[in-house]
Amino acid sequence: MLKLAIFDFDSTLMDGETIDFFANELGFGDEVAKITEEAMSGRLDFFESLQSRATLLKGLDYSIVEKISQNLPYMPGAIETISALKKRGMTVICFSGGFRSATGYAKDILGYDADFANVLHQKDGKLTGLVGGDMMFNYSKGDMLTRLQNILGVSSEETLVCGDGANDLSMFAHAGTRIAFCARDILKKEANIIIKEKDLSLLLKEI
User: Fold this and answer.
1) Which position among 10, 20, 115, 164 bears the catalytic label?
2) Who wins on pLDDT, 20 or 124?
3) Which of 26, 92, 101, 163 is deepest in the core (most CB within 10 A)?
């Protein structure tokens, strides 16, 4: 019986990449999107890609970061799916290589129990180009998942994970139910459930 569900945020619970929305404000949208794609496809180290993308955001007003973070397009079926899983008695957590400004705001809207993500450093109301947080490395999601499993007393067989990119691989290694959602090929290879349509509620039929 499943007890714990972990969802990625960008391109899983939310339709798009938060950092790409930020970069569009500065005219770096295409450049940042290319780096994001390389990282999500497993061709670029996640930590290095995160640092390089955050550097490009230097100078952006934090008020714009907050405004964008509070107006993101959530994935069809996200609210319904999380609600259904919680009714089954599952704890639902969001792991994001993106940012708390987005995941923290979305928590009460989408209904998950907690979020672990990164933080864009700001000073005097503007981004400094620095970044830190819980999900900085390729291994971060798997590391955090095993710690949560130990705290909650949940086994890998009782764990569901759902994501789309290479930085989700580490958590796939510690879960019995592995859902690749509109995912890159590198993640599909490790999944036992593949969803190709942008409708998260489809996973409810698979578990």
Assistant:
1) 10
2) 124
3) 163
Query: Would you say the pTM of this structure is higher than 0.85?
Result: yes
Rounded CA-CA distance 176/191 in Å is 10
Buried b / exposed e along 163-177 (16+ C-beta atoms within 10 A): bbbbbbbbbbebbeb
For residue 168, the Cα-to-chain-centroid distance in whole angstroms is 8
Residues in contact with 28: Cβ distance below 8 Å, sequence separation at least 6, in sequence order? 56, 57
Does residue 8 have an active-site annotation? yes
Q: How many domains are contained in the chain?
A: 1
Q: What is 63-126 written as a DSSP string?
A: HHHHHHHTS--BPTTHHHHHHHHHHTT-EEEEEEEEEHHHHHHHIIIII-SEEEEEEEEEETTE
Q: pLDDT for 78-97, tens place per residue?
A: 999 999 999 999 999 999 99
- The boundaries of the domain holding residue 20 are 4-205
Q: Which CATH number characterizes residue 80's domain?
A: 3.40.50.1000
Would residue 124 show up in a list of annotated catalytic residues for this protein? no
Q: Which of 8, 20, 115, 164 is catalytic?
A: 8
Q: Which of 85, 69, 59 is nearest to 3 (CA)?
A: 85
CA distance 148 to 153: 8
